[in-house]
Specification:
Elements: E1 5-7, H1 17-21, H2 24-36, H3 50-53, H4 56-72, E2 75-79, H5 86-95, E3 110-114, H6 120-130, E4 135-140, H7 147-164, H8 166-172, E5 173-178, H9 183-191, E6 194-198, H10 211-219, H11 224-237, H12 248-261, E7 266-271, H13 277-291, E8 299-304, H14 313-318, E9 323-332, H15 357-374, E10 379-386, H16 389-410, H17 421-430
Length: 440
């Protein structure tokens, strides 16, 4: 099977292979706890076999709803925060032409995003952009009361209704929410919006392969069947029956925890391909929200190389040695661009003439990895044969599975996020929300 891979050899400057493999037993126990639903947070394991459980009927319903929005809309505003938009953004940015939104003629609507922060200027500018435009809204929220998306949706809903009328707005608004209850579920029923369910046992940061991710991806023209097919392949490859040394999710979880025990408290997820920027953003939420508990956990950071080598490279090379690096390496680009020769050669680049730009990038990657290893930064390497929809499906599920295993090995519940509520309580009190006592 043409699939993603993992190499931990250059992580062994800080831990031995024996130390990694000593974690085989706790990793296996954690894997068994996931599959047997015997660990903490087991009520949130709906993502575990989600890829292989998506039915033809579900694909058809999602594709049908996406076709309606595609036929009617120039823009579709995905309204959600955290896992309700990061997975979509990660996949679309990775797969779409970087400048597609500038093209005058497009096959699919442009996805815009709202509800992922609280910014008056952003909402004003978005509203101005949408004036006179044909647009629709996908509102994604399990509860329907999360402040950021609820606030943005209220504003955008009113604008859409003023523009096309309430009846037509009902056709252009699709809700993705809890399968049974919540304010958004109630609103969808009352207003007659088409709706899809996020399974009650799937948390937001694990929801990219539910309609929360699949619907907007289908609107953007992504082949969601191939995305899920890639995830199914990784679901099988990281199953309970796969030997530890061959199970890349298990090996990644073990290596991370061995490095953490050796004092490496920060993990940098690096890529050498700008299309993977939002994969890093999605990964940060997945691991930060899953493992950062009880005064434990590796702090997740993402960087884009070579860009960030000109800003963070000095710190990574010579700063405090409490970090390790995981590099996503893309083996084959989708296009070919060669370096031309120049008669004057004032920039001194004629030594690169005739070489592919990707070859230059690959040497930058190899040189960076070696420099960081020489500087005492352990390196793991995840290889992506190429950036396509199937390999992205594999990558997303790989990270999810490894996250569940790693959290259990760490000794925390990787499926809750109690600390997220702290800022909300303070904000609500400061805004005089009923039922929230104001603090001095």
């Amino acid at each position: 099977m043409n699939t993603i891979g993992l190499n931990i050899d250059k992580a062994l400057i800080a831990v031995t292979r024996e130390e990694v493999y000593k974690l085989e037993t706790p990793v296996k126990k954690s894997l068994e706890a996931l599959h047997h639903h015997s660990g903490v947070g087991s009520e949130w394991l709906g993502w575990l076999h989600l890829p292989s459980s998506v039915t033809e009927k579900e694909f058809g319903e999602i594709e049908d709803a996406a076709a309606v929005l595609s036929d009617e809309c120039e823009f579709v505003v995905v309204t959600g925060i955290g896992g309700s938009y990061l997975g979509t953004k990660a996949v679309t940015d990775a797969l779409n032409n970087s400048f597609d939104w500038l093209q005058r003629e497009r096959k699919h609507p442009v996805l815009l995003y709202a509800g992922h922060h609280i910014s008056e200027d952003y909402l004003y500018e978005l509203s101005e952009l949408l004036k006179g435009k044909s647009f629709g809204i996908i509102i994604i929220s399990k509860s329907g009361t999360t402040t950021e998306p609820a606030l943005a949706f209220r504003i955008l809903k009113k604008q859409l209704e003023r523009t096309v009328g309430k009846k037509e707005a009902q056709r252009r608004i699709v809700a993705v929410t809890d399968d049974r209850c919540g304010a958004l579920r109630t609103l969808a029923v009352q207003e007659g919006y088409r709706s899809f369910a996020i399974p009650g046992n799937v948390g937001g940061r694990f929801s990219v392969l539910t309609p929360a991710g699949l619907l907007p991806l289908a609107v953007a023209g992504i082949d969601i069947r191939q995305l899920v097919a890639g995830a199914v392949e990784m679901e099988k490859a990281t199953g309970i029956e796969t030997p530890f040394a061959e199970n890349i999710a298990a090996l990644y979880a073990a290596t991370r925890n061995a490095l953490y025990a050796a004092g490496k408290k920060m993990e940098i997820l690096a890529n050498f391909h700008p299309k993977l920027h939002y994969v890093g953003e999605w990964w940060k939420q997945l691991y930060g929200e899953s493992e950062g508990k009880e005064n434990k956990g590796i702090f997740p950071v993402s960087v884009d190389f070579t860009t960030d080598l000109h800003s963070l490279g000095q710190w990574i090379q010579e700063g405090e040695r409490t970090l390790f690096e995981t590099v996503i390496s893309v083996e084959k680009p989708n296009y070919e661009v060669s370096v031309p020769a120049d008669e004057a050669d004032l920039d001194g680049l004629n030594y690169l003439a005739g070489k592919r730009v990707d070859e230059v990038n690959k040497m930058a990657e190899r040189g960076t990895q070696q420099a960081h290893v020489d500087g005492g930064v352990p390196n793991l390497r995840i290889t992506l044969p190429e950036i396509n929809v199937r390999h992205l499906g594999q990558l997303l599920y790989f990270f999810e599975k490894a996250c569940g295993i790693s959290g259990y090995v760490l000794g925390v519940n990787p499926f809750d996020q109690p600390g997220v509520e702290a800022y909300k309580k303070n904000m609500f009190a400061l805004l005089n929300k009923p039922g929230h006592e104001k603090r001095n």
